[in-house]
Specification:
The complex is a heterodimer of chains A (130) and B (168).
Chain A: H1 4-15, H2 21-33, H3 35-56, H4 63-73, E1 75-84, E2 88-97, E3 102-110, E4 113-115, H5 120-129
Antiparallel strand pairs in A: 1-2, 2-3, 3-4
Chain B: H1 3-12, H2 16-38, H3 41-58, H4 68-89, H5 108-118, H6 122-133, H7 138-145, H8 149-167
Classes of the chains: A alpha+beta (130), B mainly alpha (168).
Chain lengths: 130, 168
């Protein structure tokens, strides 16, 4: 028979259903006889649901990321230029897609923090219109 | 072959449709995982982008010894920590306010959970996410984090204790 401490360590993974069959059986046998570990199981189940609900409510990846991935995987870098210092940095890049379409990229950093340079549509996504 | 392994094998053969399906399945999960580590949505977008490009270029290197999701989260984790190291070197901190400023109305109860999660150290927060949201076994989490299984269990123990206090 497992001790309470060992069971409590395994309870989070008993809750998410990923213990081996042997481990799950041992936990189940212990819980059937131990009120305090049953209480721990109930609390962990509740916590797991709260975390899951909260994460489901977290933001989804914006659509522009797929566009960026699709562009990046199909393009050949022609060249780039970095200007500035830590306080103010500007990067300019020129690449070409597989279809031969040139693409200009830019990146501005101010006081070490990236300042987004987005098109109007992308700004709207950040403002919740995506 | 599992659905995810099948998708990855097709991506290794440059199948664009499978790549898009892989993106659809994983992008938001990677995004939320990266937010868990970085606490910054803009940086989390970078992680998604870089992880997906790595998948496109290196899908053929998947050895099949772990779950596909564990392998993908491993790539994302390295990208996130590379960014985190760079951010720390630059003297910058994560933009916590950027995590939950989404206009979608988070109900108060869920906002409280997010606040409680933010109060955890990153290594505990990550384990809570991987266990309760991604449903990974503790052995897979130990592999992913490159720590002993006992460390995963002990971080979870401390995380649960802090969350219970914060949410009581």
């Amino acid at each position: 028979m497992m001790q309470c401490e060992q069971v409590r360590e395994l309870i989070p993974w008993y809750v998410n259903g990923t213990l081996s069959r042997d481990e799950a059986t041992l936990v189940a046998q212990h819980i059937a006889q131990c009120a305090s570990c049953r209480e721990e199981l109930a609390q962990t189940l509740q916590l797991s649901l709260k975390v899951r609900n909260a994460m489901n409510d977290a933001p989804s990846v914006p659509k522009r990321v797929w566009e960026a991935v699709r562009t990046e995987k199909g393009e050949v870098q022609l060249g780039g230029l970095d200007l500035g210092s830590f306080l103010l940095g500007l990067s300019l890049g020129l690449s070409v897609t597989k279809r031969g379409r040139p693409r200009f990229t830019s990146n501005l950093r101010l006081f070490g923090r990236q300042v987004p340079i987005y098109k109007t549509r992308e700004r709207e996504e950040y403002n919740g219109k995506s | 072959m599992s659905h995810e392994r099948d998708l990855l094998a097709r991506v290794a053969h440059r199948d664009e449709a499978s790549f898009q399906r892989l993106y659809d399945e994983f992008a938001t999960r990677i995004f939320r995982y990266a937010i868990t580590i970085l606490r910054n949505r803009h940086l989390a977008e970078e992680v998604v982008q870089e992880t997906m490009i790595t998948l496109w270029e290196s899908a053929g290197t998947y050895a099949g010894s772990s779950r596909v999701s564990t392998w993908i989260f491993g790539i994302a984790r390295h990208k996130a920590y590379d960014i985190l190291k760079g951010e720390k070197k630059g003297g910058r901190t994560a933009d916590v306010s950027a995590v939950m400023d989404d206009p979608a109305p988070a109900i108060e109860r869920e906002a409280q959970v997010h606040k409680a999660l933010e109060g955890l150290p990153p290594d505990q927060r990550e384990i809570v996410f991987l266990t309760f949201y991604e449903n990974l076994p503790y052995k897979a989490i130990a592999d992913l984090l490159e720590v002993p299984e006992g460390t995963v269990k002990s971080r979870m123990y401390h995380a649960k204790k802090k969350l219970a206090e914060a949410l009581s």
